[in-house]
Amino acid sequence: AEVKAKAKAAKLADPMEASIEPSTQEMIRRAQQLNIETVFDRAVTMKPCAIGLQGICCKNCAMGPCRLPLPKDGIQGEDTRKGLCGATANTICARNFARMIAAGAAAHSDHGRNVALTFLEAAKGTTKDYKIKDPAKLIQIAPYFGVATTVEEDGVVKDRDLQEIALAVAKKAVNEWGKPSGTLDYLKRAPQPLQDKWIEEGVMPRNVDREIVEIMHRTHMGVDQDYKNLMKQGTRASLADGWGGSMIGTDLQDVMFGTPSPLQAEANLGVMKEDHVNIIVHGHEPLLSEMIVAAAQSQELISYAKEKGAKGIQLGGICCTANEILQRHGVPPAGTFLQQELAIITGACDAMIVDVQCIFQNLANVAKCFHTKLITTHPIAKMEQDNVIHIEFDEHHAMEDAVRIVKMAIDNYANRGAEVIIPRHKTTQIAGFGVESIKYHLGGAFRGDYYTLNDNIINGRIRGIAGVVGCNNARTKHNEEHITLIKELIKNDVIVLTTGCSAIAAGIHGLLTPESAAVHCGPGLAEVCETVGIPPVLHLGSCVDNSRILLAATEVVKAGGLGNDICDLPAAGSAPEWMSEKAISIGQYFVASGVYTVFGYHMPLDGAPEFKNYLYKEMEKIFGGKWDCEPDPIKHAHKMIAHIDKKRAELGIDK
Ligand code: XCC
Ligand code: SF4
Fold first, then answer.
1. Does residue 107 share a domain with residue 235?
2. Which residue has the least CA distance to atom 4 on ligand 2?
3. Half-sphere exposure of 343 (CA within 13 A, CB side)
4. What's the pLDDT tens digit per position in 192-246?
5. Reported ipTM
6. Domain boundary among 366, 387, 415
C-alpha cells in the first residue's frame, strides 16, 4: 500500500518543458507511455532542499547536521548564526565548497592516474594492448617532466630511444600523484606571471593526492575555520586538477590513443540503428572505450554480428566517453548526460557499458524493462541491482575483455522486444579540435598572419574567446542554456571552445559545422570561419580536456599582442547547466588561472553572503579571475561579453 501511495504521488514531466531537443522530448513521452520513470519525472516530483541550496548545511560531525539558513529579511546587524561548534555560515559554506572541489579534483585526477599507470605498463611492455600512437606528443611533453629526448654519444647528439623516453615520462608522471617534495612539473607550462602569482599566494600544488587529502583534513570538524584559508587550499587542489591530473590525463591519452584532429561525425539518439547491434559506451575513461571501439570495428566481430542477423555494429557514446571516442575515431555521441536513460528506452540498446562518473543508478531500473545488458567495468563503480553484469576491465587483458563484452551485446541482439522506437533526429558535426589543430587551421601559428587567432582578436574580427563547458542539469531545461548562450556569444563575434556535455549539446543542435557560421555568427567571426573553414564553436573534447583550453589560452598569451597573462585576455568561461562537483573544481582552476567564470542555474552560496562576495569579487584581486552566476542565458552571455570588452579596452584594442 505504501509503495502504491508513493507511485501515485509521482508526477510526470512535461516533455516540452524538460528539453528543447526533439528526440529527448519524444523519448520522455515514450517512457511515460511505457510507465518507465526517468530523471525528468523525478525532477518534477522531488524539489531540492532549500537549505542545502544555500550551501550552509553542515554534516561534518555528529553534533549536526547544523543548518544556518539566511533569515528571511536578510542579516540585520551582526551575523550571529552558528553551528554547535560555533562554525559560521562562511566557514560552513567554504568547507562545503572546498569539499566539492576535492571530489571533483579526485574524480578527474584518479582518471588521470589510471591513464598514467596504464601508460607505465605500456612503456614497460607489460601490456600489449596499449601502445605509443603519437610519438610526437610524447617528445613534446617529455621536457616538462625533465626527461631528455636526445642522447649524446661520442660528441654526437642523437634521438633517444622512444621506449626509453616513454618509461622515463611514465615514471615521472605517476610520481606526480604522490611525490614527497617539490611542486607539480606541469605548472611551469603556465605563463610566468601566473606562476608568480601562485607562488606568492602559496597555492602551488605539491602533488595531486596531497592537495585533495588536505582539503578533507582541513574541512574535518574543528580544523580550518577561516574561509579565505580554506579557499586557498581549494585553489591549490583545483590547480592540481587542471594543471595536473587532468592535463597529464589528456596528454598521455593523446600519446597512447592519438592527438585528435578535426573529423566529421553524427550526433544524437538517431545515430542508433534498428538493424544493427547497438552498443552504447558511457562514462569517462578512454582506457576502456578505446578497446571497445577496436573490438567493435574488428572484421571478426562484425562478421559475428552478421551471423546473428544484424547488418553490423553501431557504437555510440554518452557523456565524456562519447567525446573521447568521437574526437579520436569519429564514433558518434548518442546523447548528453540527460539522455542516458533515453538511449535504453529506444528498445534498441543491446548493451550499455559504463565505467566511472555521471552514471545514473536508475539505468539498472530502466534496463530491467528491456533486453539491454547493462555492464559495469570498473572496480570502483559497481551497481547493487541484480540485472547488472560486472566485467572487470584490466589493462593486462583489455582487448580480451572488450571482445567478450562486444560478443555479449551481439548475442543479445536476438533478444530485442518488438517495441523498438529510435528517434530520427541526428545531426552532422565537426569535432576533434585541440591546441595543435586550432593553430594549424588558423594560419599555422597564433600570431603574425592574417589568419591567426591573435591577429583576428587584435583586429576585432573575433571579439574574444569563450570556454563553454560542463554538464546538463535536470533542474534546467535540457540544452536550452547551452544553446541560447552559445548562439548569443557567436552572434557577438565571440569564438567558443567547448567540451563535455556542452560540446555534445552543441553538436546535436548543429552548431559544430562551418556552415553554421553564416547562419549564427556576427560578421567578423563569420568572415574568419568562412575564410579558414572552421566552425565558430570548436569541440575540444571531454572534461579532462579542459586542460586543452588552459593550454590554448597559454599559447595565445605567449604568441603576444594580448597582454602577459591569461587574465589579460579578452576571454571568459562558462558552465551554463553545471551539476557535477567536477564542474566546481574546473571553475575554480579557471578562476585561479585568471578567467572570469560564470555558472548558470544556481550556486550553493546564498546563505553565506561574505564568502560569496569573496568568490565573486575579491578573488579577482588575487588571481585576475572570479566567479559569477547567472541563470538567464542571454544575460549570462552579456556578462561574459562585457568582461571581454573590458579586457579589450584595457589592451587598447577596442574599436
Ligand atoms: Fe558528466 Fe563529463 Fe558533466 Fe557531462 S559534462 S555531465 S561531468 S559527462 Ni563533464
Ligand atoms: Fe555542526 Fe560544527 Fe559539527 Fe558542522 S562541525 S555539524 S557546524 S557542530
1. yes
2. 58
3. 37
4. 999 999 999 999 999 999 999 999 999 999 999 999 999 999 999 999 999 999 9
5. 0.96
6. 415
